[in-house]
Design a protein that fits this description.
36% helix, 18 helices, 23 strands, Glycosyltransferase, 3 domains, Chondroitin_lyas, alpha+beta, Beta-galactosidase, Chain A, domain 5, 630 residues
Length: 630
């Protein structure tokens, strides 16, 4: 499937139709009703003899006044927490808009000309749909408000912003009720982002630029629309965006603003159950976790700046989700690219933690602590750490961001990322999207060419598997023990044990199946790391090198073949690059294989096993017994 698939073609496609059935089967009733409601509105509203756009426009009171102080203070705090590198990138993007160009998802488009802004031009609406979502969400406003301290520092940008907002306000294509409006300019998710960015603009431009009144009017119209279109049916991170937008709009206005503020708080309270016992967001994407946490931190800060009480649910999420991010923090300070995650969409991980501290969230956790509710387990300390994903897939009713990363690992040595996940290219239903979600793209084991959970389209997911995992420590050796089973045919089970002590990590996989097949263990190496093959005469060894230094070595165990090839890495939306990939393979219906990671001197390793437990480790001539799993 090289391009996008329509929903009709998915229904008739023999590969995706079963996935569509399984995805729909797990959806909640209110999700299905929401799909029906949006479809009906899209068909009916444009054909009604009333002007829905004017209905919202008439709701805006004359002499609209704003109270920008709380949002202005919050925006200043967030801006100061972002860091100089991020702010410099924002300023460059903001300056680019003054030339009529917008860059999103690594794709630059000239969106403005003599005829105005092409809000619904074919180039804007072509896949991936996220480009239009972010454009219609006015992300270009955040580059100015969070990049520059004052509008006087970028007059050309402010002039462009005023022109574009005027164009939006008067364009027929961007009217409420225009054909396809709920899937284009007025998608509630886009309305939420647009509202947040417009609110910050109102607080940033002050009263001497001519933009404030227009922006305030647009905030009012968008908030009034969003209040009628909260995505309770969609849930997930969309619902959090809705709630945060209503809180920010409510903070800006008196009168109706009180109702929006309370509605937004209620939505965020309702969405607080999306966070697991360890504080992790239930979609299990570090990127979306960071975005969602920033929304809760903003709501907490705005309520406090107004002297209002903060509901305990919001305080608890702010603290627990911050502590989760502290525990998840890798040695290099950048999020692991687990499930649907990329760099550059959420604020950088250290910036989010600084923001939490700046708004008074008292959270204290130690980087490297495991997070069992989310299924993330650290083995190691300091700059040398292995992260194992032994958790459940994302929620059954929201499978879109779930990947086949069962029992996958990521690895850092000397503070450098050596083994990494793949990231996410985009959300268009393409071969590249399917690959990024597939078991082939993760540092784990594959049986034959089988996916543990079938994936397809942009967000479809077949029958789920449910891993279980434990971590124990005996005789000074830490042991992760995780497993899952896949059925129906082809039926197989995968068990992964990871032993760790001092400067080595032994990963041992057992695959039992009904039929013989090739079993492949893959390790995807970070793109800046070189792989150099060595051989001491007894077994192959792969050195992972950064420049002239060997940071770690990988010794395959029990594999019939060990090869080096390349794979694709997508660290940002729309961007792909090549990296090294190690593959270890064996054949059979009961296969055991593994590898040793070591940051110390190169080692020769032999493992004894009895078919169920790893019995010992031989490092050169020094034999060491390993504790059997309980």
């Amino acid at each position: 499937m090289s391009g996008g698939q329509s929903r009709l073609s998915q229904l008739t496609d023999t590969e995706t139709a079963p996935l569509l059935y399984e995805t729909v089967r797990n959806m909640e009733t209110r999700q299905l009703l929401g799909v029906a409601d949006r479809t009906l509105r899209q068909l009916v509203v444009p054909s009604l003899p009333l002007d829905a756009d004017q209905w919202y426009d008439r709701k805006v009171p004359s002499g609209l006044a704003i109270r920008p102080g709380p949002v202005r203070g919050n925006t200043t705090t967030l801006r100061r927490c972002l860091g100089s590198e991020t702010r410099e990138r924002y300023r460059e993007r903001a300056d680019e808009t003054a030339t009529g160009t917008v860059t999103l998802l690594d794709r630059s488009l000239s969106v403005a000309g003599e005829d105005g802004v092409g809000w619904l031009d074919e180039s804007v609406l072509e896949p991936p749909a996220m480009w239009a979502l972010k454009f219609h969400g006015f992300e270009f406003l955040s580059w100015a408000t969070l990049g520059y301290d004052e509008p006087t520092a970028c007059p050309a940008v402010v002039e462009t912003v005023e022109d574009w907002l005027t164009d939006w306000d008067g364009a027929d294509a961007t009217r409420v009720g225009a054909p396809g409006y709920l899937r284009r300019a007025w998608t509630p998710h886009a309305v939420s982002l647009r509202t947040i960015n417009l609110v910050r603009l109102c607080a940033w431009v002050r009263r001497d630029t001519g933009v404030e009144a227009l922006a305030a009017r647009l905030v009012y119209r968008n908030a009034a629309f969003l209040a009628n279109h909260v995505e309770h049916d969609v849930g997930g991170n969309h619902l959090i965006e809705n709630g945060a937008a209503l809180v920010m709009a409510g903070t800006l206005f008196d009168g109706d603003g009180e109702g929006w503020l309370q509605q937004g708080v209620d939505v965020l309270v309702d969405a607080s159950d999306q966070f697991l016992a360890d504080g992790g967001h239930f979609e299990r994407s570090p990127m979306y976790h960071g975005i969602a946490l920033v929304r809760y931190l903003t709501a907490v800060d705005l309520l406090r700046r107004q002297g209002r009480s903060v509901p305990p649910e919001l305080r608890e999420v702010a603290v627990a989700a911050t502590e989760f991010l502290q525990r998840l923090s890798p040695p290099d300070g950048r999020i692991p690219l687990l499930n649907d995650a990329v760099f550059g969409e959420a604020p950088p991980l250290p910036a989010v933690l600084r923001y939490a501290d700046a708004v008074g969230v008292d959270a204290t956790a130690t980087p490297g602590e495991s997070m069992p509710a989310s299924g993330y387990y650290w083995l190691g300390e300091g700059d040398d750490r292995l992260l194992v994903d032994g958790g459940q897939p994302g929620p059954a009713h929201l499978p879109g961001h779930t990947h086949n990363d069962q029992l996958s690992v990521a690895f850092w040595a000397d503070g450098t990322r050596l083994l990494t996940d793949t990231g996410t290219p985009a959300y268009a239903p393409t071969n590249r999207r399917e690959y990024a979600r597939s078991v082939r793209a993760h540092n784990t084991v594959q049986y034959g060419d089988v996916e543990p959970m079938p994936v397809g389209g942009s967000y479809l997911l077949g029958r789920r598997v449910e891993p279980t995992a434990t971590v124990t420590e005996r005789d000074g050796v830490a042991l992760f023990d995780g497993r899952y089973s896949r059925e129906p045919s082809p039926r197989y089970s995968h068990r992964r044990r990871v032993y760790h002590d001092e400067d080595w990590w032994l990963v041992w996989d057992t695959v039992d199946a009904d039929e013989e097949a090739t079993v492949t263990s893959r390790l995807h190496v970070a793109p800046d790391i070189d792989v150099e093959r060595g051989d001491d005469g007894r077994q192959p060894r792969f050195d992972l090198r950064d420049g002239g230094s060997t940071l770690a070595s990988v010794v395959p165990l029990g594999a019939a073949t060990a090869t080096v090839a390349t794979s694709e890495y997508c660290p940002e939306y729309g961007r792909a690059e090549s990296r090294a990939k190690l593959s270890f393979q064996s054949e059979g219906s009961a296969v055991q294989l593994g590898f040793l990671l070591s940051t110390g001197a190169p080692r020769s390793v032999a493992v004894d096993h009895d078919g169920t437990t790893v019995a010992g480790l031989s490092v050169d001539d020094d034999y060491r017994s390993l504790p059997a799993p309980e």
